[in-house]
Design brief:
Elements lengths: L35 H23 L3 H19 L3 H5 L2 E5 L8 H11 L2 H4 L8 H6 L1 E5 L1
Antiparallel strand pairs: 1-2
Helix pairs in contact: 1-2, 2-4
Length: 141
């Protein structure tokens, strides 16, 4: 009797061929998972806007900068489908299960994004921990 060299455990998941495959998303083009370059560009734009406003109104106070950044995320994600940076780079944030993103998802996602570390921990679908907890995915187009 041949032995199975790899035990079949409930935690075993086959690696995906591309980000978003396990979510049923296309590999490239509209509705594919946003890649690192676009994500980085979007957050740089959002941070630059928050920094400018913080400089203009709060003498570049660090807490004001984070607060403005967070407020922009929380307001724009449910209203225009993503932050200003997301929209400039052709991205939108959607719930994994479809529908409207709602109010609580942007709040949870932004709180985790502001403490940075969850955003640096990604899965094979290139979803940060902040997106996994909020049940969201950042898509192209």
């Amino acid at each position: 009797m041949p032995q199975n060299p790899v035990p079949n455990r409930s935690g075993d998941i086959a690696p995906s061929r591309y980000p978003g495959e396990r979510l049923g998303l296309p590999e490239v083009g509209p509705r594919s998972v946003a890649r690192f370059g676009r994500r980085l560009g979007a957050i740089v734009i959002d941070w630059a806007i928050a920094s400018f406003l913080s400089f203009a109104f709060f003498h570049y106070d660090g807490w004001a900068n984070i607060g403005i950044f967070a407020l922009m995320q929380i307001v724009f994600i449910p209203t225009i489908g993503g932050s200003i940076g997301h929209r400039i780079f052709g991205l939108r944030l959607v719930p994994v299960r479809g529908g409207w993103v709602g109010v609580w998802r942007p709040i949870v996602r932004t709180a985790l994004l502001c403490i940075v570390i969850p955003a640096l921990v990604w899965d094979s679908d290139q979803r940060g921990f902040h997106d996994k907890i909020a049940g969201t995915v950042l898509l192209r187009g």
